[in-house]
Amino acid sequence: MSVSEHTRSGDRFVYVLDHDAGLRSVLEESDRARCRQHAVAAIAEVPAGAWDPQANPYPDAELGLLVLDGLLIRDVTVAEARCGELIGPGTILRPWDESGADAPMRHDVDWQVIEPLRVAVLDQHFLRVVAHWPPLITALVARANERAQDLAVMVSIHSLKRVDVRLLAFFWHLADRYGKVTSDGVLVPLALTHRQLALLVGAQRPSVTSALGTLSERELLRRDDEGNWLLTGDPPDDLSVLTPNGVAA
């Protein structure tokens, strides 16, 4: 993807606190209005499809890119093994730093935008602003820690033996961040395909399709008419309840 395919217009800015309730909430009420006026950032947009941030590194983004809207997958390949990370609003990225070509254990990193991205370019001006409000610095560091914790959970989910158990654990993990409680269950409004789910849980696409059928038959997870996912019942305290004899196969 070339630079010309990105919207990086210098006259398009966003009040960051208007679009990030988490950052806004850490400030005292008396500080929010003043901070809002100063904490502005340029907007960049990335269309759906393959994204090559190495070809478009956003040199002004000293702190990184804050995802405001959209969804993408970071796809990491080591030898023939692949692992995907789902990234959405609230995440801070520096994707141009992530190249495994020169690492001792070579690995490839690819990016796939699922839903068009809108990001705030956190530049030197933004850094100078947040320096006046230490709670914002703490919140931004916490974002990085949350992402690390999320990845640790995903490593554990990948280690589960059964694909249906992995998928159920994965969707309940997503529900904590994206879920919406409805009369029918917990809706996860992410139109993820079977192929994308296979990458995210470390399985083959046919195995994912079969496992989703099993979960649907057991009325634990199903897809709605709009392609989103619906979890029914409560989160299982013990995932071994999915297996006939209570032991993961």
UniProtKB/TrEMBL annotation:
List the SUPFAM superfamilies hit by this protein, alphabetically.
Answer: Winged helix' DNA-binding domain
Name the domain of life: Bacteria
All copies of the HTH crp-type domain together span 161-249
Query: Which Gene Ontology MF annotations are present?
Result: DNA binding
GO biological process, alphabetically ordered: regulation of DNA-templated transcription
PROSITE patterns associated with the record: HTH_CRP_2
Name it: Putative transcriptional regulator, Crp/Fnr family
